[in-house]
């Protein structure tokens, strides 16, 4: 028995090793002459799988449209899709695989900033551009040593959202004082809070109080009771929908009816489930796109998406869709089919018409684009303003 | 009798036994080197190789604590985090080989110190209690890293220079195997095993159980720190979430799957799991289902792990050899020379005396009871 098992184990090891080597020599030939390979390195399982799956759905839809319209540079786009388990090290490994073994022309993904950062050194050394639609951390495309040559993104960064919301609060909502309630365990929330604070104060506003919670908390009565004692016009609540939903609900129950402002972390149907319809009035958040937008591009996108997947697209779907189109556009404009040429084309993108707003790439490889502020009334999106 | 059993074996077989582990490691290195140089192992397979090497360091060191010393620890990711951050910060400031060496040493030393400080009070606990205590320690380390300024909070360290390649990783993995194997053969190592088998009995014959456990724990923490440093230096990016509870569980899975108390088991299962995970990358939706299924099946059919608490030995491949070499290396008495032809008909005699018998018939019943207890259920010799 023991021997049999040992034999089986050895056999399995040998088979796996051989097949690993086999697949290497098989695809060593490189990208075919009549297709252009684009790699997708996404979180399809693990902690943030919903982001990855949504992005990939959007990308697939975009690529189907491009291929149906004749492809780019006369060639069809072929996607090579891998799952990085939401782990940065796995993302590095897969970026290496896509670039050295599958010989892709560009890689889209991962969705989260951490995993995306882990693939950038691989991109720089292999001279293959990587593009993310949803890595919003401030230091993704620029680090201490300057701009990352081969990294791009199609979403605005965190501090931009904080700044935009502060301007909106001061100018549109005419707020003079604000309270910040932030998620202390997430870098995202901290960055947003900082940007909001400095812009709001520049606009002549005053931050009268700062409270913090930690992701996973469920009881916010102590925090909100302290907030209730203060005199303020708006609450800024950077964080994710899990806690934000509960906080909004508890705040409304305590009789705090000041407007609640948030960011793209609010964009989930679960916000409504957690807070309830009655609580979600006078809630505003910045987002990449709004389904209320009357722009014909957006209307067309929503219609097509519903026809294909039978559900309302969210921001990750839209960003994935845009990112794929953005990369295809750059490949179309590239002088030759090399990573370097595609990089140059990506860097020189001007006024690309995306569903999430017309974008141009600046010298830091960040997009210059509009931001949308969505207002909720009885739990549904009632207003949307591009600013 | 006992003097004879304790005597160090001599001759070619003994030499083979001593040289076996280094020989296998060198041979593996040469094979991998050859495959890399002819291009069969490309950049991608090298990153898999790196994962395997790092997991080997992690699994062998956790096995020392959990498998050989019997202390159930769920805090290995915490030590890894210390090593990773020390190396990451050091190499970002001094991007040279000296920065790397300094970072690894500082990280491993810090991890050992933390291991010592945690070990002294908690190793008095046993079983589940220790598991919870070590889990708490790893969580404290993670939350501290999340809130300190120097560690850059939840965003983690970005842009750590890659200063190592698979050669260095292989050497570290090989060193951890050899050093831990040698530690286990030393008097301290024997003490830790004695503590695992029966703490009270070991104490009663003069083994300082707390010291033995703490020593093993500190050594485990040291290698955990080294592995974390290697990880940071190879994979460019670290953040506190990567060293959470699930990372400790991942390492524990490798150890349990290979067999608690089997170094070669840890090595084989680290390789096996990395290859399985690699093959499943293309099947995103079913990936964790398959992975889980494989774990369930292995645990159902091999609850003691692939190798139990034994090691991979040449004797396990005995059935692949011609008959006359099969018993070589199986027990001490048989290692002196090749079996005489006559013993083909009376291997029982040869196996237990190490001498050619000249006997060609079945052994007398009395002799058999005394000398082959394994078959007849008598006392062990």
Structure explained in plain terms:
The complex is a heterodimer of chains A (387) and B (381). With 387 residues, chain A is an alpha/beta fold. Chain A is 45% helix and 19% strand. In chain A, α11 (315-333) packs across α12 (339-347). The longest helix of chain A is centred in the first third of the chain and has 26 residues, at 2-27. Chain A is elongated, with a radius of gyration of 23 Å. Helix content of chain B is 66%, strand content 0%. Chain B is built from 16 helices and no strands. The longest helix of chain B has 27 residues, at 11-37. Chain B is globular. Chains A and B meet through α1, β2, α3, α4 and α6 of A and α3, α12 and α13 of B.
Keywords:
heterodimer; A: 387 residues; alpha/beta; seven-stranded mixed β-sheet; five-stranded parallel β-sheet; 16 strands; elongated; B: 381 residues; mainly alpha; 16 helices; disordered N terminus; disordered C terminus
* % residues in beta strands of chain A: 15-25%
Sketch the topology of chain B as an H/E string, one letter per element: HHHHHHHHHHHHHHHH
Q: What is the beta-strand fraction of chain B?
A: under 5%
Q: Oligomeric state of the chains?
A: heterodimer
The largest beta-sheet of chain A arranges its strands as 9-8-10-11-12-15-16
Low-confidence stretches of chain B: 1-6, 328-343, 375-381
Structural class of chain A: alpha/beta
Termini distance of chain A?
A: 71 Å
Beta strand count of chain B: 0
| Rg calc of chain B | 24 Å
Main sheet overview of chain B: none
Question: How many helices of chain B in DSSP terms?
Answer: 16
Write the layout of secondary structure elements.
The complex is a heterodimer of chains A (387) and B (381).
Chain A: H1 2-27, E1 35-42, H2 49-68, E2 76-83, H3 88-100, E3 106-108, H4 113-126, E4 130-132, E5 142-143, E6 146-147, E7 151-153, H5 158-172, E8 177-183, H6 187-202, E9 206-213, H7 221-228, E10 234-236, H8 241-253, E11 260-262, H9 269-275, E12 283-287, H10 296-309, H11 315-333, H12 339-347, E13 360-361, E14 367-368, E15 372-377, E16 380-386
Helix pairs in contact in A: 2-11, 3-4, 5-6, 8-9, 11-12
Chain B: H1 2-6, H2 11-37, H3 43-68, H4 76-93, H5 97-122, H6 128-147, H7 166-185, H8 187-197, H9 199-204, H10 209-235, H11 245-258, H12 263-279, H13 287-301, H14 347-353, H15 365-371, H16 373-376
Helix pairs in contact in B: 2-7, 3-7, 3-10, 3-11, 3-12, 4-5, 4-6, 4-10, 5-10, 7-8, 8-10, 11-12
């Amino acid at each position: 028995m023991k021997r049999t098992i040992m034999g089986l184990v050895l056999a399995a090891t040998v088979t796996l090793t051989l097949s690993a080597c086999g697949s290497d020599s098989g695809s060593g030939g490189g990208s075919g002459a009549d297709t252009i390979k684009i790699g997708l390195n996404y979180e399809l399982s693990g902690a943030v799988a919903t982001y990855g799956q949504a992005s990939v759905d959007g990308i697939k839809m975009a690529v189907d449209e491009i291929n149906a319209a004749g492809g780019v540079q006369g060639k069809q786009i072929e996607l090579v899709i891998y799952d990085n388990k939401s782990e940065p090290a796995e993302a590095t490994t897969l970026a290496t695989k896509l670039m050295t073994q599958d010989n892709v022309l560009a890689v889209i993904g991962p969705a989260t900033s951490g995993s995306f950062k882990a693939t950038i050194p691989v991109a720089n050394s292999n001279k293959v551009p990587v593009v993310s639609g949803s890595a919003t951390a401030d230091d993704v495309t620029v680090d201490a040593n300057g701009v990352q040559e081969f990294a791009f993104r199609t979403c605005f960064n965190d501090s931009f959202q904080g700044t935009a919301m502060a301007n909106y609060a001061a100018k549109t909502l005419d707020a003079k004082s604000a309270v910040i309630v932030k998620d202390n365990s997430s870098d995202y929330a901290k960055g947003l809070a900082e940007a909001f604070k400095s812009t709001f104060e520049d606009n002549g506003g005053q931050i009268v109080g700062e409270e913090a919670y930690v992701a996973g908390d469920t009881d916010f009565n102590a925090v909100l009771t302290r907030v209730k004692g203060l005199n303020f016009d708006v609450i800024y609540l950077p964080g994710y929908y899990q806690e934000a939903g509960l906080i909004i609900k508890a705040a409304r129950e305590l009789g705090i009816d000041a407007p609640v402002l948030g960011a793209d972390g609010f964009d989930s149907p679960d916000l409504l489930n957690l807070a309830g319809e009655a609580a979600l009035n006078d809630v505003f958040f910045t987002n990449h796109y709004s389904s209320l937008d009357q722009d014909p591009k957006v209307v067309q996108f929503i219609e097509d998406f519903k026809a294909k997947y039978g559900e309302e697209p969210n921001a990750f779907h839209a960003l994935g869709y845009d990112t794929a189109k953005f990369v295809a556009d750059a490949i179309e404009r590239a002088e030759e089919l090399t990573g370097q040429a595609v990089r140059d084309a990506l860097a020189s993108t001007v006024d690309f018409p995306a569903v999430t707003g017309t974008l141009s790439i600046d010298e830091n490889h960040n997009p210059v684009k509009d931001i949308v502020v969505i207002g909720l009334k009885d739990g549904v999106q009632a207003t949307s303003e591009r600013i | 009798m006992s003097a004879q059993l304790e005597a160090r074996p001599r001759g070619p077989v003994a030499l083979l036994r001593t040289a076996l582990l280094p020989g296998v490691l060198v041979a593996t290195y040469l094979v991998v080197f050859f495959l890399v140089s002819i291009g069969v192992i490309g950049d991608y397979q090298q990153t898999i190789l790196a994962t395997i090497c790092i997991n080997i360091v992690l699994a062998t060191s956790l096995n020392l604590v959990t498998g050989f010393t019997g202390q159930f620890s769920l805090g290995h990711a915490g030590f890894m985090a210390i090593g990773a951050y020390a190396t990451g910060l050091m190499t970002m400031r001094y991007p040279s080989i000296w920065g790397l060496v300094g970072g690894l040493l500082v990280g491993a030393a810090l991890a050992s110190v933390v291991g010592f400080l945690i070990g002294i009070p908690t190793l008095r606990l046993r079983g589940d209690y220790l598991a919870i205590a070590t889990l708490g320690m790893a969580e404290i380390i993670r939350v501290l890293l999340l809130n300190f300024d120097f560690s850059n909070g939840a965003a983690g360290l970005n842009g750590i220079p890659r200063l190592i390649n698979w050669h260095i990783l292989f050497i570290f993995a090989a060193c951890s195997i050899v050093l831990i194997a040698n530690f286990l053969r030393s008097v301290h190592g024997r003490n830790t095993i004695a503590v695992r088998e029966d703490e009270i009995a070991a104490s009663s014959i003069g083994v300082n159980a707390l010291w033995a456990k703490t020593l093993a724990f500190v050594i485990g923490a040291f290698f955990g720190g080294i592995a974390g440093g290697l990880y940071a230096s190879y994979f460019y990016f670290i953040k506190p979430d990567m060293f959470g509870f699930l990372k400790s569980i991942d390492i524990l899975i490798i150890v349990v799957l290979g067999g608690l108390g089997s170094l070669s088991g840890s090595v084989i299962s680290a390789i096996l799991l990395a290859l399985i995970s690699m093959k499943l990358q293309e099947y995103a939706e079913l990936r964790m289902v398959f992975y889980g299924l494989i774990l369930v099946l292995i645990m159902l059919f091999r609850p003691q792990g692939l190798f139990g608490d034994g090691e991979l030995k040449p004797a396990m491949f005995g059935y692949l050899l011609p008959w006359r070499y099969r018993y070589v290396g199986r027990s001490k008495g048989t290692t002196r020379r090749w079996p005489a032809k006559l013993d083909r008909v009376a291997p029982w005699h040869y196996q237990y005396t190490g001498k050619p018998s000249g006997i060609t018939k079945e052994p007398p019943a009395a002799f058999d009871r005394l000398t082959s207890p394994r078959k007849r259920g008598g006392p062990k010799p």
